[in-house]
Amino acid sequence: MAELQITVQSTPNPNAAKFSLDRELPVGGRSYFDAESARGDQLAERLFAIEGVRALLLVDNFITVTKADEEEWPDLVDRIESVIREELGSGT
């Protein structure tokens, strides 16, 4: 399967960004507002392990990540994309 393509888009909330994928997520829609609620979801757990990630919305073919106010997107985007590729890049 081809390499996972990820497009990052801004949202009306400056602390949230939408990571659109070129394929569907393997599990249906879900949202998490803290790391504790994400237990058992390996992708979400790994995203919450990134300093500054505060909330996640995973639906269809996109993941919306909400960051802490003090974090900057340039510092987070590469790490977030790396985790998504490691978890989903082998194809579903």
Record the SSE blueprint.
Layout: E1 6-10, E2 16-21, E3 30-32, H1 42-48, E4 53-59, E5 62-67, H2 73-88
Antiparallel strand pairs: 1-2, 2-5, 3-4, 4-5
Helix pairs in contact: 1-2
The gist of it:
It is built from two helices and five strands, in the order βββαββα. The chain is α+β, with helices and mostly antiparallel strands and 92 residues long.
Task: Provide an overview of this structure.
It is a single chain. The chain has 92 residues and is of the alpha+beta class. It has a single domain, classed as Ribosomal Protein S8, Chain: A, domain 1, CATH 3.30.1370. It is 25% helix and 29% strand. Strands 1-2-5-4-3 form a 5-stranded antiparallel β-sheet, with helices on one face. Helix 1 (42-48) packs antiparallel against helix 2. The chain is globular and about 35 Å long.
The CATH topology is Ribosomal Protein S8, Chain: A, domain 1
Beta-strand share of residues: 25-35%
Helix content range? 25-40%
User: Helix/strand-derived class?
Assistant: alpha+beta
Order of strands, widest sheet = 1-2-5-4-3
Features:
92 residues, alpha+beta, Ribosomal Protein S8, Chain: A, domain 1, 5-stranded antiparallel beta sheet, 2 helices, 25% helix, globular
